[in-house]
Amino acid sequence: MTQNTGTGARPGVGPAGSEPASATPATPPPFDRPNAAVAAAQADAAPVKPPPPRLTWMGITHQWGTRVKPGKHGLRLGDLNVGIYGEVPAVWNDQTRNPRGAVARRGIPPVGYSIRDKADLWADCAADLYEEAIQRRWAPATDVPWATLASLPDDLEAAICQVATELSQYANVDVEAVTHWQHQMAYGYHEVKQFLATVSFDAARHLEAFRKRALANGGGLGLEGPGEVNRMILESRGGWTETVLYLFVLRGLFTQTMLRYLERYATCDAERAIYGNCLEDKARHLTYGVDHLWYSINHQPDQKLITQQLCIIGERVLVRELKDPVLREALSIVFAGGVARAASEGAAVYRKMMRDFVRRYLDVMKWLGVERTAMFPDELAQYLRND
Amino acid sequence: MGEAGAASQQGELDLGWMKRRGEWGVRAEPSKQGLTLADIQIGSYGDPVAVSDNQTGRPRGAAARATSMRIGGYSVTRKSEIWLENASFLYEEALQRQWSSATDVPWHTIRPLPDDIEQAQCQLATFLTEVEFVAGDVPARWISQTTPDYFEPRQCLLAQVMDESRHMDVFRKRALANGGGLMLTSGGTAGVVGSIDLSRDFTEMSSRLHISGEGAVLTIFRMGELMAYNEAEKAMYRLCSQDEARHVAFGVMHMRYMSEAAPERREEIQCYLDEAERQILAGSQNPAGTQTDASEALAILLGGGKDKYDEGLKKLIAIRKRQVTEYVKRVRTTGFGDRFDNGRSQLPALMNQAAA
């Protein structure tokens, strides 16, 4: 009655390299300490004449005998990539929710995934980043020492609130961009989908944390951002890779650099905790972004040139957004500790921040092998000249 | 002078933005659970409008720019379509109760099992991995379509996507951790008419996903001790049931809000419940559904082996009845309990299927 498919492995017999199933022990009891719900369920059981089981599923597997052992960091997602379960194909044509390595049922209507090529989403680090994100979880409600917030001069409070407003809006774009694509990704690449679940959850926390900061110290939300880069990210429908470039690398690096400076100029431990925790999260997002771009560029013949073209477009959009004075002025006030020295000392720190951002951006592009001297906007290049 | 120099000279700051802002002078105070989302629902930042015209992604309560482009493309713009009263609480609880399948499940307690039991466990794990895919995919799609003016429910859904991701991996881990492997998928998660995937209305989706679908799975998880053979499996089901209970609560509280805020939609909602009830026992997305591979696997686990299948089936039938009882309680809580009193619900007749 039972049969095997696929590799021909059969239950109880492990494939080469895996531990064989050990001798069958005595059947353990199905439960030892039934709780109240269990007891109630048993009490409800009425005598019936059960139909005979079909059990046609028994023995249907592509690979049996897999025994992954937990390591010193527990049993991690990446540890599961053994035997056929670790074979990640270049194209995943299965349009159902068949878990990778399971036996697919034939004739199932498709769900309709648009991202089915590994090169369009993969990053080797996704599984590790997923586990790291879970281990480094934090809660703005309880992991930020809100009691350390102290009243600030109105100009400084207004500037911090303006920055928090824009960062909260950035996080909203993170949420919307990632969740727009997430469900379109095929399950053959579940590690990436799972990592992206942590990214959108991180973004939810960022949205929340910055909103809380704006509303916790006698201020309030400021003016919405100009939205040029937001638009570019949300309208980057050419593929997930394009979104990754704009969301995690261009905007991501800009945000990360800003957070690093904000952490340095924080007015209290609560702010330091917010910026510090967000920075850790952002570092994971950037790692995935760069790793994915690297994979994409190295597995698709035209991707390097496409990335270069997208960079040229994206940099110009960023420059347009930066012409809006609001964020720049707010940051200058924060860095200077008030309006009085914002245009001098604050602006100087802002320029350093921009210099760091441009440098890091160009370093990443260089590492990826994407040429970024031609048509690089002078508005960004000048930050390096002023060095 | 370039862009960088614009703010570099004294007196060149514009500062006009300082006068264009949301309500000023807000000082939210942390409560005993810290500074929660509920704590910042104050003043004009509290209750959102019934119909949102925010298509720019503006944070609720921030000042609008006249020049902002309408980039949101949101389709969920009415509060009644997605709101619930306790979203802030559910979200904060989700944050506090995050867990790790790598380190919070005592994997070392897993011991080799008889082959029929290991196969049943792996078949069930394969099924659960597959259905958790649905519960992760679908809420994600709705998040991106919902205006940020209703960010509290969106935060809950984001937590759900994270939870489901963990459920996927914990069941995959179980299947690959004890000498077994993944087995046969159910195919019951395909995108066909009336499925969770294809719902074009949030409440329709939520009624299927949260109330009937996850409700049925929650009952199974709560019975985890019955089908667990070691502490790792017990922990797995217990932790998943905590998460699942929040998701079900989301659906129940949303439907209750919808019922009160948009009574004109009650008849339409009854139709979704009609559909859900037809699927609750016969549908292939319920692991305890009649005559499915997962339910046979469950019967083996509940009985203690293939040779004790009949004994296991009796327990399974009790679980199905419990699923129905809990479903009825939930629907009564939403305010749609009249369907069980006026003869609209076919569940009493469907209860006979429980023994099939």
Q: What can you tell me about this protein's structure?
A:
Chain A is globular. Chain A contains twelve helices and no strands. Chain A has helices at 36-44, 126-135, 140-143, 154-182, 190-215, 228-234, 240-264, 269-299, 303-322, 325-336, 342-368, 378-385. With 387 residues, chain A is an all-alpha fold. Chain B is an all-alpha fold. In chain B, helix 4 crosses helix 9 and helix 8 (293-303) packs across helix 9. Chain B is globular and about 80 Å long. The relative contact order of chain B is 0.11. Chains A and B meet through helix 1, helix 2, helix 3, helix 4 and helix 5 of A and helix 1, helix 2, helix 3, helix 5 and helix 8 of B.
State the low-pLDDT regions of chain A, or none.
1-35
Along the chain, the helix and strand elements of chain B come as HHHHHHHHHHH
User: How helical, in percent, are the residues of chain A?
Assistant: 40-55%
**Uncertain stretches of 5 or more adjacent residues of chain B:** 1-10
**Average of per-residue pLDDT values of chain B:** 91
Assembly of the depicted chains: heterodimer
Number of helices of chain A: 12
For the record, give the distance between the C-alpha atoms at the N and C termini of chain A, rounded to a whole number. 76 Å
Q: What's the helix-strand series of chain A?
A: HHHHHHHHHHHH
Please describe the biggest sheet of chain A, giving its number of strands, its sense, and whether it closes into a barrel: none
Mean pLDDT, all residues of chain A: 89
Strand content of chain A: under 5%
Biggest β-sheet strands, sense, barrel of chain B: none
Structural class given helices, strands, pairing of chain A?
Answer: mainly alpha
Name the pair of protein chains with the most residues at their interface, and give those residue counts. Answer: A-B, 157 and 146 residues
| Category by helix and strand content of chain B | mainly alpha
Total number of strands of chain B: 0
Shape of chain A: globular
